[in-house]
Amino acid sequence: MLTNLKAQPADKILALMAMYRDDPRPTKIDLGVGVYKNAEGVTPVMRAVKTAERRLVEEQTTKSYVALAGDPAFSAAMTDLLLADSVDRARIAAIATPGGTGAVRQAFELIKGASPTARVWVSNPTWPNHVSILNHLQIETVKYRYFDTETRGVDFDGMIEDLNAATPGDVVLLHGCCHNPTGANLNLTQWQSVIDLLNEKGLIPMIDIAYQGFGDGLEEDAAATRLVASSVPECLIAASCSKNFGVYRERTGMLMAISENADNTAVTQGNLNHLNRQNYSFPPDHGARVVTTILTDDALRADWAAELEETRLSMLNLREQLASELQRLSGSDRFGFLAQHRGMFSQLGTTPDMVERLRAEHGIYMVSDSRLNIAGLNAVTVPILAKAIVETGI
Fold first, then answer.
1. Percent of the chain with pLDDT strictly greater than 70
2. At 10, is the pLDDT very low, low, confident or very high (cuts 50, 70, 90)?
3. What pTM does this model have?
4. pLDDT tens digits, one per residue of 296-314
5. Which of 167, 193, 213, 261 has its Cα between 20 and 30 A from that of 184?
6. 3-state SS of 216-230?
7. What is the DSSP letter of 178?
8. Could you tell me the domains of the chain?
9. Residues with catalytic function
10. Residue 46 φ/ψ region, left for φ over 0, alpha for ψ in the -120 to 50 degree band, beta for the rest
11. For 211, phi and psi rounded to 5 degrees?
């Protein structure tokens, strides 16, 4: 049997990590991996997370299974964080998942079960795993224009023109904030136009929100998700706690499914539970319990929010430093978009050949589509990167 298996294509980011590890140059810079790092190059454990974990060690009395959907307190706390009072809770079904990726996978499984012929529209570009999972599940995928490589902003006219070709029942995958990989986001006026189109054409939005708090702030980053969820009959939301709580390895995420009315919530919840049962039965609990402990304790929540804000401002400062240094070296404002983008990532909008030159000639490692992780920089490496970009002729 196993001899019938075919080799799978190597993961580009993992391959990039291996090349970086083997590179002896002391000035090499890793901008490929999508993990937050502080100025010392460390992904820290947040203060509130450490406190919550200590509390759990002292107070937890069992490691027995939780419910198929996970701890209801986790769903309630995350719903409050993401949606506040924008949607009637009676319309919301939710399950805990192994990270945001697990939430995305279960959302696609739900789509396939509920509407086997539905197409899923994804931004061009999008997080590569979106398309990979959709292809694995044999769900038809259609791309819509999103990133303008000339302006390095959103090609909104192209986006709307493409989505006008969607048919009723299709699903439109949207990034709630801090678009990955481009860093370019819709403004609220544009979001409203998207909502109008969704409702006019009978399309179902699915929002992937993995970076709440990394862009403009916790409340600001949730604004678009709340606007969409409160304005459409049905909505799916896949959320990750990996970045804003720093619990990457604890695999903590949640999928929410919002029904048109409360009468359908029980059936939706039952289907979500069934999906968990078929996949991994009970979701992991440690990270979810840590997040719940933080969000339901006023002091811990305040400390977490303060440290998250420090993280956000640090990345924003790095963006501004890089844009300023590039302006100084190039004598041009063409890199000003870096200060306008939000979140961990920006896309330079250059070619794979140029990206390869950055690696070969300067030891700058980024994904071939020119996505760079802003959090991989610090005050020392910003000038090195800027010099390399200008000398390469990007």
1. 100
2. confident
3. 0.96
4. 999 999 999 999 999 999 9
5. 167
6. CCHHHHHHHHHHHHC
7. S
8. 10-44+301-392 (3.90.1150.10), 65-296 (3.40.640.10)
9. 127, 208, 210, 243
10. beta
11. -130, 30
